[in-house]
Structure formats: structure tokens, C-alpha cells
């Protein structure tokens, strides 16, 4: 059985002072699918790309990482311009489309279904996300969600919060960054933010804090996992690597989290942090392959 990822694939246009623009494949859900394929999982991606050069490049890139892509290429491919600061962090400007054809996905069983980022919020494709999550909820698949909040794209905060919480009630795992959490729940501590998401129904919440600790929590156990020391080239794809690692290590768990104690949470967090450290040590969303040191 395979892991189904649902979400956008796009071209990152990376801009930094004093350097020419760099073009690279991206999109948070596409990165998660790519990361899963590179770790040896049987990964599928339902997405929406154009029939232009960028679309063909994306499809080839994903297939080289052993991802089976479901898409009907037409029109122009989405882009995200990443503006890099001197510390390697990125801000984004988007030109987007999101209207996938859910009929391309067969009715097979999956060990996990992951949804994320802009695709979870943007119509008309958000309806496909809901439909496939419903199908996953009727099975034993692990369901996961990473909002990867982009305020300039998803619009009104209250509407976005309602959508986030609606999805969080339907999944087993929610992973988000501290920036995401502070936008959704401003003025609250990390522990309070995590507690609120757990009360919505998620079985496991992972909160990443950049170069600081990450926090992984169930209703009964909570651990803080230090980020590994690494020379950062840029942070593009770091959170997606963390997410792919969690899905890879939890696939098959379904809704059975009774045995996810502090030891298991620490192992999950350490694996994810170690894999993310590989990604940030090199340019762009170049996620690790199975067999790489640390992966």
C-alpha cells in the first residue's frame, strides 16, 4: 500500500542579493511526497501543474524521486518567489492555481494520507482535499496535516483559522511551525497552542521552532527535541523534511497512538530533526535519500 499526498507542486524562484535568480522545483506537499519517495516509501501525489516547461520539469523531478504523480497538465504552472535573507530564511510571493482532478486517484487503500499548505485552504481544490480525507477517514490510513500558513494567500485570518480547526478535527497528526502557530493563536504559549490543537482531536502535534527545539506531543506525553547543530545554507524544505519524516515513521499507525509514549516521541523528533538538518545544509528543497548519513 502507498502513501497519498495531496497538494500543490510549483517552481520556486529563489532570489538573493547579489546573485542571479535560481529556479527549483518546490511546493510543500510536493516536497513531502518527494521526501517520502527518497526515503523508500511508495509515494503518490495528487497535484495540479501546467503543460509548460515548468510543469514538465516538475513531473520529471518528482518521478526521479520515485513519486507517482496524478495530474492533468494544462495551462501555466504555479510559481513561488523565495526572497532569501542573509541568515538563509525565506519570504515568499506566489502566483498560484489549485484545481486538481480527484478522479485520477483510484480507490485503493493507503497507509497514510497527507494534506498541506495552500492546497488545504484554496478553492476550488480544497473540495478535493475534503473528499479524499473523508475516504481516508473511512479506512485505517494515518491522516496528517501541515498548514504551512501563507497569510498573503489564504486571506482572512478568522476564516483561515476556522478551516485549520476543521481539518485538525479530522486528522491524526498536525505538524506546524512556531510561525504558523503564532499566526493562528497569537499571544499564546507554545504549550497552550499545542493543547488547543490536541483538544480539537489530533492524536499527535509537532511544533517546529526553526533552529531551536521542536516539541512533539500527544494528550499524555510531551517531549522537546533539540535541533542539531548544522551550517545552514538555506531553510527551504526544512519543515517539509520534518513532515515527511513523521509520515514515513508513523505510516501504518492509523489512529492507534496508545503506545506513542515519550520514548517514541523522542525517536520521531530526533529522526525528523536529523533529516531536516541534511536539507538545510544544502541549497533548496534537496531532501535526503535513504542511506545518506543521518537519513
Automatic annotation (TrEMBL):
Transmembrane segments: none annotated. InterPro entries: Carboh/pur_kinase_PfkB_CS, PfkB_Carbo_kinase, PfkB_dom, Ribokinase-like. The keyword Transferase applies. Residues 3-287 form the Carbohydrate kinase PfkB domain. The keyword Transferase applies. This is Fructokinase. PANTHER family: HEXOKINASE FAMILY MEMBER, PSEUDOURIDINE KINASE-RELATED. Keywords: ATP-binding, Kinase, Nucleotide-binding, Transferase. Belongs to the carbohydrate kinase PfkB family. One of its GO terms (molecular function) is ATP binding. Its EC number is 2.7.1.4. Pfam families: PfkB (PF00294).
Amino acid at each position: 500500500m502507498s502513501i497519498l499526498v495531496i497538494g500543490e507542486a510549483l517552481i520556486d524562484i529563489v532570489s538573493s542579493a547579489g546573485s542571479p535568480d535560481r529556479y527549483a522545483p518546490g511546493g510543500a506537499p510536493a516536497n513531502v511526497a518527494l521526501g517520502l519517495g527518497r526515503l523508500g516509501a511508495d509515494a503518490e501525489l495528487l497535484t495540479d501543474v501546467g503543460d509548460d516547461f515548468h510543469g514538465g520539469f516538475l513531473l520529471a523531478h518528482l518521478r526521479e524521486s520515485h513519486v507517482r504523480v496524478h495530474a492533468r497538465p494544462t495551462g501555466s504552472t504555479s510559481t513561488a518567489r523565495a526572497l532569501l535573507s542573509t541568515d538563509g530564511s525565506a519570504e515568499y510571493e506566489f502566483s498560484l492555481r489549485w484545481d486538481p482532478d480527484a478522479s485520477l486517484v483510484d480507490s485503493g487503500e493507503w497507509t497514510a494520507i497527507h494534506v498541506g499548505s495552500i492546497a488545504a485552504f484554496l478553492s476550488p481544490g480544497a473540495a478535493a482535499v475534503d473528499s479524499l480525507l473523508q475516504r481516508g477517514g473511512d479506512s485505517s490510513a494515518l491522516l496528517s496535516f501541515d498548514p504551512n500558513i501563507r497569510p498573503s494567500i489564504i486571506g482572512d485570518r478568522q476564516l483561515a483559522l476556522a478551516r485549520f480547526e476543521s481539518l485538525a478535527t479530522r486528522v491524526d497528526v498536525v505538524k506546524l511551525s512556531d510561525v504558523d502557530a503564532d499566526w493562528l493563536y497569537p499571544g499564546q504559549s507554545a504549550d497552550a497552542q499545542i493543547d488547543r490543537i490536541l483538544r480539537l482531536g489530533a492524536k499527535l502535534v509537532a511544533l517546529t521552532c526553526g533552529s531551536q527545539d521542536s516539541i512533539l506531543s500527544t494528550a499524555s506525553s510531551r517531549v522537546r527535541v533539540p535541533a542539531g547543530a548544522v551550517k545552514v545554507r538555506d531553510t527551504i524544505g526544512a519543515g517539509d523534511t520534518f513532515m515527511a519524516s513523521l509520515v514515513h515513521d508513523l505510516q501504518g499507525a492509523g489512529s492507534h497512538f496508545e503506545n506513542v509514549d515519550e520514548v517514541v516521541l523522542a525517536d520521531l523528533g530526533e529522526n525528523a530533526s536529523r533529516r531536516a538538518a541534511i536539507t538545510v545544509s544544502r541549497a533548496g528543497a534537496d531532501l535526503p535519500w535513504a542511506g545518506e548519513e543521518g537519513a
